[in-house]
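Researcher: We're teaching a course module on how sequence relates to structure. For the next exercise, students receive a sequence and then see the predicted structure as tokens, so they can try to spot secondary structure elements on their own. Here is the exercise chain.
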Amino acid sequence: MFETFGDRPGADCRAGCEWGSVHPEPGSARQVQRETTQTSGECGMRQCLSLCSLPNPFEIQASVGCTVLPGNTSQSFFQAAFQGEEILSFQGSAWVPAPDAPVWASRASRKLNEDQGTRKTLQSLLNDTCPQFVRDVLEAGKSDLEKQVRPEAWLSRGPSPGPGHLLLVCHVSGFYPKPVWVMWMRGEQEQQGIQQDDIVPHADGTWYLQISLNVATKEVAGLSCRVRHSSLGGQDMVLYWEQHRPMGWVFLAVMCPWCFWRVLCSGSGSTGKHTGDISALTSI
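Model: And here is the predicted structure for the students to work with:
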């Protein structure tokens, strides 16, 4: 399992694996280390179980990995849990029982610490192999991690939710990376009852999102849609509903001057004819 956290240069990145889930090339040094760790771990576990009276069946869980931080530093972790409760962790070069672990966890940690070969192998895997693996993956995907595409946003009116109400829709499209914050606002106050669809991908790898707000017609004044995204450089994108013009009004604004020009240009060209046409248009 490999996960990256953050979408900007210098963000923390973390790698982890569950026991036995990494499959390096046969014969490699990493496989030799892996096999040694698994064999020693299995033997140590059998020895620990022989020292403890445990319920049957039982469940043991492990969380193993490392975090690469800015400044070429890293932190490693290895925690073990029994029946969902942490019992041991590998710190520095030794196993340490958890503060609230059962008494037998102390005996188990002492037994595991007797295996110096496994402890050295764990140190190497956690402090050297794991951080270098993360850095290699980060370098390979550097262009994608640093990619920033600004969103486009627009407003529209959705299907009528009922008499005296409007469905306001805010569309945000073409942004990358995926994390984005979009909200209907009145001033600095976030509005309640917002419906947000899933963020869906475009064919070019960018993303699209829309959010809707059911509001009474008389309460639309002062509403705006606010967009925050890493590509905007800390400057929110704000779209005000009062500045939004439905397509019907846009059509009229374009067509009316054209109709007026046609009236002026029609007829024989006499002043009286033009005046009559203009009066007829005015009366309409």
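Model: If you want an answer key for the exercise: Residues 60 and 82 are 5 Å apart (CA to CA). The first helix runs from residue 29 to 51.
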